[in-house]
Amino acid sequence: MRYEHIFFDLDGTLTDPAPGITNSIIYARKKWGLDPGRNEDYYKFIGPPMPWSFEHYWGMGHDDAVRFLQTYREYFGTVGLFENEVYPGIPALLEALKKQGRRLYMATTKPTGFSIQIAERFGLLPYFEIISGSDPYGDDTKADVIRYARDTRGVDMTKAVMVGDRLYDVEGAHECGIPCIGVCYGYGGRHELVQAGADFLADSVEDLAALLLG
């Protein structure tokens, strides 16, 4: 099927944000007097809302998670958000989709302000009709940000698909009644995406292009 409306996740789908996110966590842990750990210890934090991750993985209470997030953003908000890299082949794919007349939307649980800054810095902003991100403290789910883009841009969901790398992308897409292409090159991996029920899988950006461009 040719999808006319395509929702893209940001982290792990369009860009590799691992250095900035993990460096920001390590910065905050050091400032809190905690064992900083290693960057790879925090790859699982890429994807879900950050306060949820602090609560879920570390058992933090909500108030402490919000405070830790504020410390995290001392680094992320000025340095970490740009310690990032667009996956090779993504700009060419977005350009090809736009030339075919497809309508593209970014749906991410990263706060909207940061998402816009990242998209602008790395030349992705012109491809998207809307950057639909979360509120500043990450209370929005993936389904919430998909619905916001849908309602704001008048998306025909019978011709829509979500593209993302984590189980949250699959769950959010299905909650909104659309299929999800799981990209295995991100931070969820094939097993997580299969378990979540991804409708299609793409092992590479080239595979993703083959699915979307036809």
Tell me the total number of β-strands: 8
* Sequence of secondary-structure elements: EEHHHEHEHEHEHEHEH
Name of the CATH homologous superfamily of the largest domain: HAD superfamily/HAD-like
Which fold name fills CATH's third level, the topology of the largest domain? Rossmann fold
- Rg on CA atoms, Å: 17 Å
- Classify the secondary structure makeup into a structural class: alpha/beta
Ranges where pLDDT stays below 50 over 5 or more residues in a row are none
Q: Could you name the CATH class of the largest domain?
A: Alpha Beta
CATH architecture designation of the largest domain: 3-Layer(aba) Sandwich
Number of domains: 2
Spatially, the strands of the biggest sheet line up as 5-4-1-6-7-8
Strand content: 15-25%
Number of helices in the DSSP assignment? 9
Sheet of most strands: 6 strands, parallel
Mean of pLDDT: 96
| Shape descriptor | globular
Helical residues, percent:
40-55%
Separation of the first and last Cα atoms? 8 Å
